[in-house]
Recover the amino acids of this structure.
């Protein structure tokens, strides 16, 4: 058992923190909305804290999963932030999808404070968080990773150190770049099947056993064909993630033509009112274009 704290009980953080209690860890949680923190403690055993600093004060491992770079800075370096209360030798684990620049900045601050920092963005979505089957990409020192890996194991099917601070965030950027093109390809394929007069379900049944198979195909094709998008990973969050990729690409010189095009498609979906729709709603954009041509 390890003394842990979890900051941010959103769609991902709420179930992740629950897995920590199931694994036997002593957990203290902080959430900006105290009502959600109280609901969490009613569902799981644990305690609530009034501030990130209070949550971190006695913890060996402090995890956070919030929204954007500014949110991470607020819960770490802001007033009543966790970093001011971190114990010597403790490790802060940031599961937020944020910039590699911020990860390196926080790792430097942590080192000066005598504690560790690991950037550890996740992949697997809400379903992966609820099932404890997330993929976790980590950046940091080998020593800090060794301390937190047994804790992360409570909610991960795969956890790997990718390199020094920032490497976890860079790996997540690769994940989102690949995902953007993959979802667009699946959307175009399904639309093509429909336009060609094929049974799209029968098509998926066949091609999902071959080289075209993907998690998105297995888990999203039915809802895509049914026009159901009120679930999953929101378009607005995907665009946030892609903006991080574009910023990094400006620094390292990588060309992202397809990713930029798909981001533009997501902007069209937001204009359709789909800001909170699942990323698979790229299919809805194509269907709307088909209807417009009819």
């Amino acid at each position: 058992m390890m003394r842990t704290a979890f900051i941010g009980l959103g769609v991902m953080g709420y179930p992740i923190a629950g897995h920590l209690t199931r694994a036997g860890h002593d957990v203290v949680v902080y959430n900006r909305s105290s009502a959600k923190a109280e609901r969490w403690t009613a569902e799981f055993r644990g305690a609530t804290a009034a501030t990130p600093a209070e949550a971190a004060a006695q913890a060996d491992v402090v995890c956070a999963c919030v929204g954007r770079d500014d949110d991470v800075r607020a819960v770490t370096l802001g007033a009543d932030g966790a970093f001011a209360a971190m114990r010597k030798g403790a490790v802060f684990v940031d599961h937020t999808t944020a910039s590699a620049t911020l990860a390196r900045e926080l790792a430097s601050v942590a080192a000066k404070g005598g504690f560790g920092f690991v950037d550890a963005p996740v992949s697997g979505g809400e379903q992966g968080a609820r099932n404890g089957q997330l993929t976790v990409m980590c950046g940091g020192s080998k020593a800090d990773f060794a301390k937190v890996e047994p804790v992360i194991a409570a909610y991960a099917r795969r956890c790997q150190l990718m390199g020094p601070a920032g490497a976890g965030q860079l790996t997540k950027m690769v994940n989102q770049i690949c995902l953007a093109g993959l979802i667009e390809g699946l959307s175009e394929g399904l639309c093509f099947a429909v336009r060609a007069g094929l049974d799209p379900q029968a098509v998926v049944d066949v091609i999902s056993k071959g080289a075209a198979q993907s998690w998105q195909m297995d888990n999203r094709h039915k809802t895509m064909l049914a026009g159901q998008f009120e679930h999953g990973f929101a378009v607005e969050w995907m665009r946030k993630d892609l903006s991080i990729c574009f910023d990094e690409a400006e620094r390292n010189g990588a060309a992202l033509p397809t990713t930029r095009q798909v981001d533009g498609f997501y902007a069209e979906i937001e204009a359709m009112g789909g800001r909170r729709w699942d990323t698979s709603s790229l299919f809805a954009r194509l269907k709307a274009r088909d209807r417009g041509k009819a």
User: Anything to note?
Assistant: The radius of gyration is 20 Å. The domain at 3-163 is CATH 3.40.50.720 (Rossmann fold). The longest helix spans residues 167-195.
